[in-house]
Design a protein that fits this description.
The complex is a heterodimer of chains A (313) and B (438). Helix content of chain A is 75%, strand content 1%. Chain A contains 13 helices and two strands, in the order αββαααααααααααα. Chain A has a two-stranded antiparallel ribbon. In chain B, α2 packs antiparallel against α15, α9 packs across α11 and α17 runs antiparallel to α18. Chain B is globular, with a radius of gyration of 24 Å. Chain B is built from 18 helices and eleven strands. The chains are: A mainly alpha (313), B alpha/beta (438).
C-alpha cells in the first residue's frame, strides 16, 4: 500500500513532470502559429518598411551627398530643418492639404452618399464608376492633365472667357495666391470618389429601424442625416480620414508635376523638398531628417485620429 | 512579460543600430588613387575592337547622330553607343550612373557639380597636354572646366572636360516689329533697349517675351549684371572664388530692371506660369518684340520667323553673353579612357563643328563654319565673334552651386510677382552661394 502510494505519488510526479513540457510547448506553439501566418507579411513589412525607415533615421545623422564619404552630423540636419523657413513652410503646406484631401472630400462624400442612398437609381453603377475613376488613374497622369487645364491658354481660362469673366483669367499655376488652391483642388477631385464609396457602402449597414423610429418621432431628412447617418458612419469616416490624411501629408506626384513647388515656395510640400534635397542638392542626410520628421508627424496625426474616432467601449 | 518584450525589442533595435553604426553611409571611392596628372598618356585610338557608351541630353547631344558615324568611319574598330535622357532626369541621375558598375565612358557635363569632388570623372590634364588642347582653345573657353584642388572652385586647376561646342544667351528680336515701331536698329545700350521697350508698349506690342516658370528672368538679370560689372569681375562669383559676392551694382541694376519692367507691364503678368518652350512658341507667333534666350532655340526661332528673326549680344558697354560649352568628360570607371579621349579630341575637328553648328551650337573658332548671310545663323556667328573679342563669355549663374538653379527659380518668381525686392533677391541668392563657397 505504502508502496502503491509511493508509486502513485511517483507516477503523479512523473505525470506532472511529463505534462509540464507539453503544456508549455502547446502554449508557445499556440503563440507561434499565428505568428507563422503573419510571417510572410511581417517579413516584407520589416524588409521594405521598417528596415528602410531605420536606415533613413540612421542616415539623417550624417552629412552625406549620396555618393561620397559621409561625415557625422549629429542633430545638425534636424536643426537645419527647423531653421530653414522654406522647409518649415513645406510642412505647413502639407497639413493645409488635409483640407483639400480629407475635409472637403469627406464632407462632399457624406452629402452625396446620403442623397443617393435612399433613391434607387438605375444609373448608379455608372455614376459610382465615374466618381471612383480618379482613384485608379496614376497621379502623374492626373497632374499632367490638370496642369494643362490650368494653363494660361488652357480650357479653364477659355471657359472663363466664354462666360465673360476674362478679367479673372490668369496662369493659375504661376500665381502666388491661386497655385496652392489649384493644386489642392486636384486632391479633392481624387479623394472624393473614395470617400463617397466608403460612406455609401456604410449607409447600407445602418439599421433601417433607426430611420423608421426617427421618422415616427417626426424627424426630417436633415435631422436624420445629423443624428443617424453621420454617427452611424463614424467607422467609415475614420477609415476615409486615415487614408486621405496620409495621402495629403505624403503628397508628391501631383505637386511635382503641376508646379514643382512654385511659384516661389508657394506650393512646396515635404515630398518635393525631400526629392530635391536628395537629387539636386545632394543633401541626403537633411532629406532623410525631413522624411523622419514627416513620418513622425504623420504617426502623431494618425494616433490622434484613432483616439478621436474610437468607439466608446 | 510585457516589459520583457519591450526590453528585448529595444535591445534588438539597438543591435540593428550598432550593426549599421559599423559603417557610415557611402564609402570611399574604390579603385586606385587619382592618377598622376603629369604621367604621360597615349594618344590616338588603340587597336582591337573598342565599345564606348556615351550619354547626353537630347538638345546638347543632337549633333552626336552625325558626329559619331563620322568618327566610326575614321576608326572602324570603335563602336560608340549613344543614349540620351531629358535634361532634368539627366542631371539627377548622372552621379549615380557614374558611380555604378555599368558606368558610361563618355558623359555630357552640364556642370561640374560634385563629379570632381567625389572622384567620378577623370582628370583630363594629361590628355590636354598630349593633344595640345590648351593652345587650341582660348583660355576662357576651357576655364569653366578647370577645377581647383578643393574640388568645388572653378576657373583654375586641372581640366576635367573637353568642350565640343558652345551656346550663348543673347537678345532675340523681331525685325518686322522693330520696323513697324519705327526703331532703326537693334539696341546697342541698355538705355536704347529700355527706350525700345517703352515704344513697343505704347505701340500695343508685348515688349519683352518672358517665361519665368523655370526661372528664366535670371538671364536678363545676369546679362545686365555682367555687362555693368565687367565680365572678368563677374566671373569670379560664377566660379565660386572665395570672397566673391552677388551684391554688386550690376546685379542690383539687373534685379531692379526686372522689377521696373514688370511694373510697367513690359512682359506678361502671367510670366511665372509660362515655361521657356511656351515663351519660344509665343515669340515665334509674334507675341513679343524682344526675347532673351539661348542659341539652342535659334533653329526653332529662325525656322518660324525666317528673315524677321534677329539676334545680338545683350546690349551693354561690353559685348557679353551667358554661355557654356557642350562639354564631355570621361568616367573614372571607363576601361577605354584612351579611345574616349581620342573621341573628345575629334570633337574639336571640322566635321564635329559643322554638325554642331547645324543644331545652333557654335564652334570654338567660328571661322571653321560658314553661315548663309541674312539668316539667324549669320547673326549668331557675328554675335559670337563680338563676345569673344570682348572676352565676354560667362558661365550660367545657375551653375554656381548645385541648388542655385532652384534658388534662382524661386527668387526670380517672387521678384516678377512683386513679392520681393532687389535687395531681398540678392540676399537670398548670396545665401545659397555662401553655403557652398562660404
Amino acid at each position: 500500500m505504502a508502496d502503491g502510494l509511493a508509486n502513485s505519488a511517483a507516477v503523479r510526479d512523473r505525470t506532472v513532470v511529463a505534462s509540464a513540457t507539453p503544456v508549455r510547448a502547446r502554449r508557445s506553439r499556440a503563440r507561434l502559429v499565428p505568428l507563422l501566418y503573419t510571417a510572410p507579411a511581417l517579413l516584407f513589412y520589416a524588409a521594405f518598411v521598417i528596415a528602410p525607415w531605420v536606415h533613413s533615421l540612421w542616415i539623417s545623422f550624417w552629412n552625406w551627398n549620396g555618393i561620397g564619404v559621409a561625415t557625422w552630423a549629429g542633430l545638425d540636419n534636424y536643426r537645419e530643418i527647423l531653421a530653414d523657413p522654406a522647409l518649415r513652410l513645406s510642412l505647413v503646406h502639407a497639413f493645409g492639404l488635409i483640407i483639400f484631401y480629407s475635409v472637403i472630400p469627406i464632407g462632399l462624400g457624406l452629402v452625396l452618399a446620403a442623397l443617393v442612398a435612399n433613391v434607387p437609381w438605375k444609373g448608379m453603377p455608372f455614376v459610382r464608376t465615374v466618381i471612383f475613376l480618379p482613384q485608379i488613374l496614376p497621379l502623374v497622369a492626373v497632374g499632367s492633365v490638370w496642369k494643362l487645364f490650368f494653363d494660361d491658354d488652357g480650357p479653364f481660362n477659355t471657359l472663363l472667357r466664354e462666360v465673360g469673366l476674362s478679367d479673372l483669367t490668369r496662369a493659375w499655376l504661376g500665381d502666388f495666391t491661386w497655385a496652392y488652391p489649384a493644386v489642392g483642388v486636384v486632391g479633392t477631385w481624387v479623394s472624393t470618389g473614395l470617400c463617397f464609396l466608403l460612406l455609401y457602402s456604410g449607409i447600407g449597414k445602418i439599421d433601417p429601424a433607426l430611420y423608421e423610429a426617427a421618422r415616427l418621432d417626426g424627424a426630417g431628412a436633415v435631422h436624420e442625416f445629423w443624428h443617424i447617418t453621420v454617427p452611424g458612419l463614424r467607422r467609415e469616416m475614420s477609415v476615409a480620414a486615415t487614408v486621405t490624411v496620409i495621402a495629403a501629408l505624403a503628397s508628391f506626384d501631383v505637386v511635382y508635376v503641376m508646379t514643382g513647388g512654385g511659384p516661389g515656395e508657394s506650393t512646396m510640400v515635404p515630398g518635393v523638398a525631400i526629392y530635391r534635397l536628395t537629387f539636386t542638392a545632394g543633401q541626403v542626410g537633411t532629406a532623410c531628417a525631413l522624411a523622419v520628421v514627416l513620418s513622425l508627424l504623420t504617426c502623431a496625426v494618425m494616433f490622434a485620429l484613432n483616439r478621436l474616432t474610437r468607439e466608446k467601449a | 512579460m510585457k516589459s520583457m518584450t519591450s526590453v528585448k525589442s529595444a535591445l534588438s533595435a539597438a543591435a540593428v543600430l550598432l550593426a549599421l553604426g559599423a559603417c557610415a553611409p557611402g564609402s570611399s571611392p574604390d579603385g586606385e588613387p587619382a592618377a598622376d596628372p603629369n604621367a604621360p598618356v597615349q594618344t590616338g585610338v588603340p587597336s582591337g575592337s573598342v565599345e564606348l557608351k556615351l550619354i547626353a541630353t537630347p538638345e546638347s547631344g543632337a549633333a552626336m547622330k552625325d558626329i559619331i558615324p563620322a568618327f566610326q568611319t575614321k576608326h572602324p574598330n570603335v563602336k560608340i553607343n549613344y543614349v540620351d535622357t531629358t535634361y532634368d532626369d539627366y542631371n539627377k541621375s548622372l552621379n549615380l550612373a557614374l558611380s555604378s558598375d555599368t558606368s558610361p565612358d563618355i558623359v555630357l557635363l552640364n556642370a561640374v557639380g560634385t563629379t570632381v569632388k567625389d572622384q567620378l570623372i577623370l582628370n583630363l590634364q594629361p590628355y590636354a597636354k598630349a593633344y595640345g588642347w590648351e593652345s587650341a582653345y582660348p583660355a576662357g573657353q576651357l576655364n569653366q572646366w578647370r577645377v581647383a584642388k578643393d574640388g568645388t572652385t572653378l576657373g583654375s586647376g586641372d581640366l576635367y572636360a573637353a568642350p565640343a561646342s558652345f551656346s550663348q544667351v543673347g537678345l532675340f528680336y523681331n525685325k518686322a516689329k522693330l520696323k513697324k515701331l519705327g526703331i532703326a536698329a537693334a539696341p546697342a545700350s541698355l538705355e536704347d533697349l529700355e527706350a525700345a521697350l517703352a515704344k513697343a508698349k505704347a505701340g500695343g506690342e508685348t515688349p519683352l517675351q518672358l517665361g519665368n516658370k523655370e526661372g528664366h528672368a535670371s538671364f536678363p538679370i545676369q546679362l545686365i549684371g555682367q555687362s555693368t560689372d565687367g565680365p572678368a569681375a563677374y566671373a569670379k562669383w560664377v566660379f565660386g572664388e572665395g570672397g566673391a559676392t552677388f551684391d554688386t551694382a550690376g546685379n542690383t541694376k539687373g534685379a531692379q530692371s526686372i522689377t521696373d519692367w514688370g511694373t510697367k507691364g513690359y512682359f506678361s503678368k502671367d510670366a511665372n506660369g509660362i515655361d521657356l518652350q511656351g515663351a519660344v512658341d509665343k515669340f515665334t507667333k509674334g507675341d513679343g518684340v524682344f526675347f532673351v534666350d539661348g542659341s539652342w532655340d535659334s533653329k526653332k526661332i529662325g525656322d518660324a520667323l525666317r528673315g524677321d528673326a534677329g539676334f545680338v549680344p545683350f546690349p551693354g558697354p561690353k559685348a557679353t553673353a551667358i554661355g557654356t560649352s557642350v562639354a564631355y568628360g570621361i568616367s573614372r570607371k571607363s576601361k577605354n579612357a584612351q579611345a574616349a579621349a581620342a573621341f573628345l579630341d575629334f570633337l574639336r575637328g571640322p566635321e564635329a563643328a559643322k554638325a554642331s553648328f547645324a543644331q545652333g551650337f557654335l564652334p570654338s573658332d567660328a571661322s571653321t563654319v560658314t553661315a548663309e548671310p541674312g539668316t539667324i545663323s549669320a547673326e549668331l556667328v557675328a554675335a559670337w565673334n563680338k563676345v569673344n573679342a570682348d572676352d565676354g563669355l560667362i558661365g550660367f549663374n545657375n551653375n554656381a552651386t548645385a541648388t542655385m538653379n532652384d534658388t534662382l527659380v524661386a527668387e526670380t518668381q517672387k521678384l516678377v510677382a512683386g513679392k520681393s525686392d532687389p535687395a531681398t533677391f540678392i540676399r537670398a541668392v548670396q545665401a545659397d552661394w555662401a553655403k557652398t563657397h562660404g
